[in-house]
Automatic annotation (TrEMBL), chain A:
This is Acyl-CoA dehydrogenase family protein. It comes from the Bacteria. Residues 218-375 form the Acyl-CoA dehydrogenase/oxidase C-terminal domain. It comes from Streptomyces durocortorensis. Its cofactor is FAD. Residues 27-108 form the Acyl-CoA dehydrogenase/oxidase N-terminal domain. It holds the Pfam family Acyl-CoA_dh_M. Residues 112-196 form the Acyl-CoA oxidase/dehydrogenase middle domain. Keywords: FAD, Flavoprotein, Oxidoreductase.
UniProtKB/TrEMBL annotation, chain B:
It comes from Streptomyces durocortorensis. Its EC number is 1.-.-.-. This is Acyl-CoA dehydrogenase family protein. Belongs to the acyl-CoA dehydrogenase family. Residues 16-115 form the Acyl-CoA dehydrogenase/oxidase N-terminal domain. GO terms for molecular function: oxidoreductase activity.
Length: 394, 372
């Protein structure tokens, strides 16, 4: 029988009693929390969970926050938590789950995602990185791009082509790649902000043991779809306060700097303030649906809404600042561990938000997904589904 | 961040089982009595309102008394339930004096307080659906704006919605709020030709009319503001219903309609327009529920929640109706197809109880984002 809220609360208090946060090392506390099944309560017993309803995680989080317990910094290990973990849980062998989930959740091992390629972005299944079987290993050659955290990552989820003679979706396999392998080369990719938040990753003769394959040979696309679905359902867990997003700094500037106000910017600010508040409520409604066990399709649209809002609000902010908007904080090439919009200046926000409608699926691809999967509109005819990958034009 | 920037409580944005049951009952009734050909035919007659439909909705289902406490003869429900009724009325654009009588007039009277007296008695009659009342102000009046009151029971008010079918007119004057029988001597209700045939307008002329004084000028102004606030807040749910119908029908049409040997709904440029509209509709739902819940719980955040919902939902309903006409092609321009009913209602609704612009001005005030 799955534990109820009272049981989960009791276990959380037991953990806190046995490992007082004030006197326990951060990593030790996180390991103890994982072993107590309180990392992600909806995961299986023995893998950081209690087989409990996902909604009960709120009970754990509230108790731990009240006790000022350390968290596992989900921003830093977001790819591992949000994408690698659910995929390993869904498709991994027992050995893989035991080996990878605990250090992933604790944050001892950071993950990155080796999916996109220079020639395969929105059309991800067109990827060209090859994996060729060699005894108990696979030998991987190719190039990946837009890889955040690659310079910090210990492990990567990787998709590669294992049979070019099959149509593109069917010849792909899914691997767990050791980023410390000598064939892996990570190069910073400098972006329009001046920073190198992403990387290019070159794979040359990388040997991956077959025991690090996830799912059957040739079924990597099916596995990858699990990863991608989890990528886009990143919103919904947490409450956003009013003015919690990018509308916050621009509203604050408006209040503090009457000298900057114009009638035109006032009208645009009010329109965007209303839209930001409505997006906040839409996210809150989605969250309430998830807690009530009735997840709605709104999640597919939230990324679209936030991408557009971030871009419009940050564009307004630069303009509102006038002469100051002509300046930029710092063009030095840096390699940030976290992308934090709120701690930066308006010019950075304007430039970085241009990526919001591209990363994790372009807005155009997401609109197709909403149209076809939510509204049930017919797909456009396509001519790449039954043709061997090697015969497609490139 | 300012003191008013934080909402006092997180609104409940979902629908309860009771609300879904109410929706089913209202939807079934409207499907039976107010399908599109019936509504179109009614708007061309002298009597757009179907009294049997009103009776079934108001007293059969009990929708007219949702806002009214049981001790005054109502259902003792709240704005959340009334909002669901308005979503369904928006979906059918049926002419029914629900928003004007069961919401605005009723809320105005409730704001006067008191368990007995003429206002309480009238609330009971409105709750049963036996009689209807309208607030005698132009439909475009915003809750936050300054209300013009006639000096006394002499004067003219243009553009009063549903006045032609109202039994009682609630007239704000410099002396206070009067209840005037529509058939009283000195009362003339002259129908206008409205853009939206499904919510008729009339000019009200009072010359030496008599009525019952319900409240003094101060109490009247407060009550009228509350009535208009509820009207504006729940109008967002009607706009949501309009937008939902328009999107659903447009998706249905573009899946079936073939051009260039393909369903037109398979063309990416059209799919993206409908997907964007879907996102607007789900966002409008969150905004409308936010306003309904804030009104239902008497939240101090209600004026801001209403202003946000109106500033957003007006545009969504109009956009949805305009896309509906466009994506139906030539069919969308015909009188037979109901798309025009939704376009006319949506456009009229974008002015009713304040334009989006006037609600943004309210946001400027409430969220402390002052004009230059």
């Amino acid at each position: 029988m799955s534990p109820d809220a009272a049981e989960v609360r009791r276990r959380t208090r037991e953990l806190l009693a046995a490992h007082p946060p004030a006197t326990t090392d951060r990593t030790d506390f996180l390991k103890a929390r994982f072993d107590a099944g309180l990392a992600w309560v909806h995961y299986p017993v023995g893998l950081g969970g209690l087989d409990a309803p996902r909604s009960l995680q709120q009970v754990v989080d509230a108790e731990l926050a009240a006790a000022d317990a350390p968290d596992n910094d989900p921003r830093r290990i977001g790819i591992g938590l949000g994408m690698a973990a659910p995929t390993i849980l869904g498709f991994g062998t027992d050995e893989q789950k035991q080996r990878f989930l605990r250090p992933l959740w604790v944050g001892e091992e950071v993950w990155c995602q080796l999916f996109s390629e220079p020639g395969a972005g929105s059309d991800l299944a067109a990827l060209a990185t090859r994996a060729v079987r060699d005894g108990d290993d696979w030998i991987v050659d190719g190039q990946k791009v837009w890889t955040s955290s690659a310079h910090l990552a210990r492990w990567a989820i990787l998709i590669a082509r294992t049979d070019p003679g099959l149509p593109k979706h069917r010849g792909i396999s899914y691997f767990l790649c050791d980023m410390t392998d000598p064939g892996v080369e990570v190069r910073p990719l400098r972006q329009i902000t001046g920073e190198a938040e992403f990387n290019e990753v070159f794979l040359s003769g990388v040997r991956i043991p077959d025991s690090h394959r996830l799912g059957p040979v040739g079924e990597g696309w099916k596995v990858a779809r699990t990863t991608l679905m989890n990528e886009r359902v990143s919103i919904g867990g947490s409450r956003i306060p009013r003015e919690g997003g990018m509308i916050g700094p621009v509203s604050a500037t408006w209040r503090e700097r009457p000298d900057l106000r114009t009638h035109d910017t006032h009208q645009r600010l009010l329109t965007l303030w209303v839209e930001a508040e409505v997006a906040r409520l839409t996210g809150e409604r989605l969250r309430q649906q998830l807690v009530a066990g009735q997840p709605g399709p709104e999640g597919s649209g939230m990324k679209l809404a936030f991408a557009r809002l971030n871009q419009e609000i940050s564009g307004l902010e630069v303009e509102l600042l006038g002469d100051e908007g002509l300046l930029y904080g710092d063009w030095t090439m840096r390699r940030p561990e976290l992308v934090d919009f709120t701690g930066r200046d308006a010019g950075y926000r304007y430039l970085r938000s241009k990526g919001n409608s591209i990363e994790g699926g372009t807005s155009e691809v997401l609109l197709n997904i909403v149209a076809e999967r939510v509204l049930g509109l017919p797909a456009e005819p396509r001519n790449d589904k039954d043709v061997a990958w090697k015969d497609l034009s490139r | 961040m300012t003191a008013t920037a934080q909402p006092p409580a997180t609104p409940d944005l979902l629908y309860s089982q009771d609300e879904e049951d109410l929706r089913s009952a209202v939807r079934a009734l409207l499907a039976d009595r107010a399908d599109a050909p019936t509504v179109i035919a009614a708007t061309e007659s002298d009597t757009p309102y179907d009294p049997r439909l009103w009776e079934a909705l108001a007293s059969g289902i009990g929708a007219a008394g949702l806002l009214v406490p049981e001790k005054l003869g109502g259902q003792g429900a709240s704005h959340r339930e009334a909002a669901v009724v308005l979503e369904e009325l928006g979906r059918s654009v049926a002419p029914a004096p629900y928003l004007t009588s069961a919401v605005v007039a009723t809320e105005t009277l409730l704001a006067l307080g008191g368990d007995d007296g003429p206002a309480a008695a009238l609330v009971g009659e409105l709750a049963s659906g036996a009689r209807t009342a309208v607030l005698a102000v132009p439909l475009g009046t915003a809750p936050a704006g300054s209300q013009k009151a006639t000096a006394s029971l002499d004067g003219t008010v243009r553009g009063v919605a549903d006045a032609a079918v109202a039994d009682v007119l609630l007239v704000p004057t410099a002396e206070g709020l009067y209840a005037v029988e529509a058939t009283a001597p000195g009362v003339a209700v002259v129908p206008l030709v409205p853009l939206d045939l499904t919510r008729p307008l009339a000019t009200l002329t009072l010359s030496g009319a008599t009525g019952t004084l319900l409240a003094d000028a101060d109490a009247s102004a407060t009550a009228v503001r509350r009535g208009l606030l509820a009207g504006a807040g729940l109008l967002a749910s009607e706009q949501l219903g309009i937008a939902e119908w328009c999107l659903t029908e447009t998706v249905r049409h573009t899946r079936e309609r073939h051009q260039f040997n393909r369903p037109v709904g398979s063309f990416q440029s059209l799919k993206h327009r409908m997907a964007r509209l879907w996102l607007e509709v789900v966002s409008a739902r969150a905004a409308a529920r936010g306003a309904a819940d804030a009104l239902a719980t008497g939240s101090p955040d209600a004026p801001l929640a209403v202003a946000v919902a109106q500033a957003y939902c007006s545009g969504v309903a109009v956009h949805a109706a305009e896309e509906c006409v466009q994506l139906h092609g030539g069919i969308g321009m015909t009188w037979e197809h109901p798309a025009h009913l939704y376009l006319k209602r949506a456009k009229a609704d974008s002015i009713a109880y304040g334009t989006a612009g006037s609600h943004r001005a309210a946001v400027a005030e409430l969220a402390e984002l002052p004009a230059p």
